[in-house]
Amino acid sequence: xxxxxxxxxxxxxxxxxxxxxxxxxxxxxxxxxxxxxxxxxxxxxxxxxxxxxxxxxxxxxxxxxxxxxxxxxxxxxxxxxxxxxxxxxxxxxxxxxxxxxxxxxxxxxxxxxxxxxxxxxxxxxxxxxxxxxxxxxxxxxxxxxxxxxxxxxxxxxxxxxxxxxxxxxxxxxxxxxxxxxxxxxxxxxxxxxxxxxxxxxxxxxxxxxxxxxxxxxxxxxxxxxxxxxxxxxxxxxxxxxxxxxxxxxxxxxxxxxxxxxxxxxxxxxxxxxxxxxxxxxxxxxxxxxxxxxxxxxxxxxxxxxxxxxxxxxxxxxxxxxxxxxxxxxxxxxx
Length: 334
What we know:
The protein is of the alpha/beta class. About 35% of the residues lie in helices and about 20% in strands. It contains eleven helices and 13 strands. The protein has helices spanning about 10-20, 25-40, 45-50, 50-60, 65-80, 100-105, 120-130, 175-185, 200-215, 245-250, 310-320; strands at about 90, 110-115, 140-145, 160-165, 190-195, 215-220, 235-240, 255-270, 280, 285, 290-295, 300-305, 325. Strands 1, 2, 3, 4, 5, 6, 7 and 8 form an eight-stranded mixed sheet that branches. Strands 9, 10, 11, 12 and 13 form a five-stranded antiparallel sheet that branches. The longest helix is centred in the first third of the chain and has 18 residues, at about 65-80. The chain is globular and about 60 Å long. The relative contact order is 0.13.
């Protein structure tokens, strides 16, 4: 079963519904299809989000998936660092603020949010949505029209999240941008979420190697700080989210759910008090005789089998899902 995340907050969904009043669904559908084509070609936000209709189409078709992926990743952060209780967040390349909404759901302690994006169109709709939601972190946020690709953001926060934004960075500037964000924003925790493609994972591994050399410590998903042991493969995860009726219409979709694939990296200034030594990097396969699992461990990639006769461990492994951490166990054969 694909692990899922709760849908976006009800108040945010209501604010989006209000934005739909008086809008042509057919026009939004046409915009949504154009957005999908642009993203498949790695088009930038500047090229795809030209006006409020584009931004609203994005809100209805892409924001839910972004929210779900970031919520999943931040839940992994809470798992790795239960002592981390942030009061400030910087949402870099924020789009419509999905990462900030996801963070607030996990840490009610947050009372200061800074949302940065180079798209004035995105920021305008983000602020309009926020104004519809009372007692929300985003409704009191600071919105900054900043090009973080070209300049170091002049803000600091305990938690810095960059979600689905580095994917647009030019290849030659990727390391410089990541280094600048890590060095200049003073984050205790730095979170990067990217599309779960081989291209974006390779770029993420370049960032990982560079920041490890400059003092960063990995909190998740890797159980080690050695080079990635995967060969001719890439590490990604997935989360399942329900599609709204608007999403189904705009995307001309038939399946009532969507599986969002993503890769991520959580870095800290100090190591986590980790008790796990492995992570499931593929869905476990439950058979009649036991559970097969593919793990990334402190010793490399392992293919394991847990027999039904090992009742305690078998019961534990049956409950595990793709992406879960665990204490590695010895490889076993039937």
